[in-house]
Amino acid sequence: MSWKVKRFDELTTRELYSILQERTQVFVVEQECPYLEVDGKDLNSYHLYKEENGEVAAYARLLPRGVSYKEASIGRVFVKKENRGRGLAGELMTRSLNFIHGELGESEVKIQAQEYLRKFYGSYGFRVVTETYLDDGIPHIDMMLRK
Predict the structure, then answer these.
(1) In a domain, 110, yes or no
(2) Which SUPFAM superfamilies does its entry note (predicted)?
(3) Could you read off the pLDDT of 25-65 as tens digits, one per residue?
(4) In a domain, 71, yes or no
């Protein structure tokens, strides 16, 4: 199936439901981390995802500058458990950065990453800009990419 990128208002109710269902499965259930997953930022973001067999296989929320940080950002990044190990995470990040740089014309991207993903994001040029800190009990770091 194909990759899609849509503004919030372009998502069908079924697409939105599938995205929120999978995000909750990964970030709340899998990670055993109760938090407000629907945080109001979706309304002003782009939603990049790959559908396979009618389900969201991989997803990232692309936030224009000013939504989370003064820089553009990428968040809520996941590959559905059953689809991990197939290279989708790399394809997702490449497409996310291409969209932010190409379509949004942004040269700086700031992310909040789980600490264990430091090397993964580092392979795309992100550099750590904070010490490790706990967010909802999970070790995180902030990272920046300057093109």
Answers:
(1) no
(2) Acyl-CoA N-acyltransferases (Nat)
(3) 998 888 888 777 889 999 999 999 999 988 999 999 999 99
(4) yes
- Structural domain including 94 reads 3-105
Rounded to the nearest 10 degrees, how much is the dihedral formed by the CA atoms of 32, 35, 25, 83?
-90
Residue with structure tokens 């770091």?
Answer: 141
71-128 pLDDT, tens digit each: 999 999 999 999 999 999 999 999 999 999 999 999 999 999 999 999 999 999 999 9
Across 20-48, b (16+ Cβ under 10 Å) vs e yields eebbeebbeeeeeeeeeeeeeebeebbbb
Q: Can you tell me the distance from the alpha carbon of 67 to that of 43, in angstroms, rounded to the nearest whole number?
A: 10
Look at residue 119 and tell me if it is in a domain.
no
**Residue 88: CATH number of its domain:** 3.40.630.30
Judge whether 95 lies within some domain. yes
